[in-house]
Specification:
Layout: H1 2-17, E1 33-39, H2 58-66, E2 68-74, H3 80-89, E3 109-110, H4 118-124, E4 128-134, E5 152-156, E6 178-181, E7 184-188, H5 195-209, E8 215-219, H6 242-263, E9 270-276, H7 303-306, E10 310-313, E11 322-329, H8 333-341, H9 357-360, E12 373-376, E13 382-387, E14 390-393, E15 398-401, H10 417-437, E16 442-443
Parallel strand pairs: 1-8, 1-9, 2-11, 4-5, 4-8
Antiparallel strand pairs: 2-10, 3-16, 5-6, 6-7, 9-10, 12-13, 13-14, 14-15
Helix pairs in contact: 5-6
Length: 461
């Protein structure tokens, strides 16, 4: 059955790859473009197409109406840096040693350049590659996006709160927020009200420049990670308040990217994906998002911390108006993109993700290739496992049937003690195997810049 599905997918992909030309030039042998938008700390319930009653997201809703929603889509960590490492490498953060929380400005390590990112893979396949937004996988010499397969970088190297504008009186937190182009700092403490807009404009310009060749555009927006800001055009628009304004500006960004694809005649030759790095930051109340019906949020191993919204759109490839309820993860994107573009997946290392092309293309009978998914805490400790409909959290030993109980209200451990022990053993065994096989991060002694520096003539909001 699996071989039949893959054969059908490859035949369909080949057919689509040879389906005419666009105004951008002859497309007969051109693999599809890839655009991934990856927001920061956005909740499962923060889009109108995922049930939010007050935040208006018409462009993402249109993506869903003309494409596919995945309702059981997971990130590999409930915090930023590990989650981003998993997306770009197709691996559990622990396998690439990026599992121990997030990278702060003074840290001397990052994702190893020997790892193969989606950008590396597609660059080798002839793609132009650009990253526009928040990186957060290392910011010393040799650790930036242009060292990890991206031709172009415009954005910030870490979270927008790692800035001296948000210091508390009396502490010794000295770090500033740099805005970068390639490896050059073009501003210190940029006006954060304009970050979403400026990164969007840079991404659109990149699409305009590279419309005649295959391209990969990665847009990891800084928002809605706190502190949140919206531009003047969006501030005060949403009944949800400033947080709603921020999400609606991100939705505008999706619309701008799609308009650029359509204007350049390459919309039908593009795979556009929208998702986020982890759940909402709940302690910030009105300045944080919503996990909808899910329990927990950012930093938690409850569903609200790691189950995130996912929408994919690609005319002629992804069937319109469809919903996939199978389990999938960000780790699946690298092998899936390899299949859909014809790029070579790394064969010299373990990749934890799976090819979910049959799910995205709506192949009848397609099922999740993920037999078991491991949950890790924000600090990288093994926390639990999902297998089929069952989810076990090792501490405190709770067992939930997620097909019935997505809010994790009814602990079934007492009714299924043998299953609890079986899942616990499986989780520990899988984690031990990853631990033994783990690959190192890259440590860099000298900083690229003085992390305590601040240009006094640059003013932020």
């Amino acid at each position: 059955m699996k071989n039949t599905l893959i054969t059908a997918v490859l035949a369909c992909t080949a057919s689509n790859a040879h389906s005419g030309a666009s105004s951008a030039g002859e497309q007969e042998d051109r693999p599809p473009n890839v655009v991934i938008m990856f927001t920061d700390d956005q909740g499962y319930g923060d889009l109108s197409c995922f049930g939010n009653p007050t935040i208006h997201t018409p462009h993402i809703d249109r993506m869903a109406a003309e494409g596919m929603k995945l309702t059981q889509f997971y990130v590999a960590s409930p915090v930023c840096s590990p989650s981003r490492a998993a997306l770009l490498t197709g691996c559990y953060p622990k396998r690439v040693s990026m599992h121990e929380h997030v990278i702060f400005p003074a840290y001397d390590y990052g994702l190893h350049v020997d790892e193969v990112t989606i950008a590396d893979m597609l660059s080798e396949h002839g793609y132009a590659t650009g990253c526009f937004g928040k990186w957060h996988l290392g910011h010393r010499e040799g650790l930036l996006p242009t060292d990890q397969g991206f031709d172009v970088f415009f954005g910030v190297p870490y979270s927008n709160d790692m800035s001296q504008f948000h210091r508390k009186p009396g502490n010794n937190y000295k770090h500033s927020l740099p805005l970068m182009r390639q490896k050059d700092i073009i501003e210190w403490e940029p006006d954060q009200r304009l970050l979403t807009r400026r990164c969007t404009e840079e991404a659109v310009a990149f699409i305009d420049r590279h419309a005649d060749e295959p391209f990969f555009v990665y847009v990891p927006h800084s928002m809605p990670h706190i502190p949140i800001y919206a531009s003047e055009d969006f501030e005060g628009r949403s009944p949800r308040g400033l947080y709603g304004d921020v999400i609606e500006e991100i939705d505008w960004s999706v619309g701008e990217l799609r308009s650029a694809l359509e204007r350049n005649g390459v919309a039908d030759d593009t795979i556009l994906i929208f998702t986020t790095d982890n759940g909402p930051w709940l302690p910030f109340k009105a300045h944080g998002g919503s996990a909808g019906p899910l329990a927990g949020g950012k930093g938690s191993n409850q569903e609200g911390g790691q189950r995130v919204p996912f929408v994919a759109w690609s005319p002629g490839r992804i069937p319109p108006g469809t919903v996939c309820r199978e389990v999938a993860t960000t780790m699946d994107l690298l092998p899936t993109i390899a299949t859909m573009t014809g790029a070579d997946i790394p064969r010299d290392r373990v990749i934890d993700g799976h090819d979910i092309t049959p799910l995205l293309m709506g192949v009848p009978g397609g099922v999740s290739p993920t037999e078991a998914f491991l949950y890790y805490t924000a600090r990288g400790k093994l926390a639990g496992i999902r297998r089929g409909k069952w989810k076990l959290l090792l501490e405190p030993g709770t067992l939930f049937d997620l097909e019935v109980d997505i809010s994790e209200q009814w602990n079934r451990a007492e009714q299924h003690p043998d299953l609890v022990e079986e899942l616990r053993t499986e989780a520990i065994d899988l984690d031990q195997k990853i631990t033994v096989e783990a690959r190192p991060v890259l440590k860099v002694a000298e900083p690229l810049w003085d992390p305590g520096h601040r240009e006094t003539d640059q003013k932020g909001p």
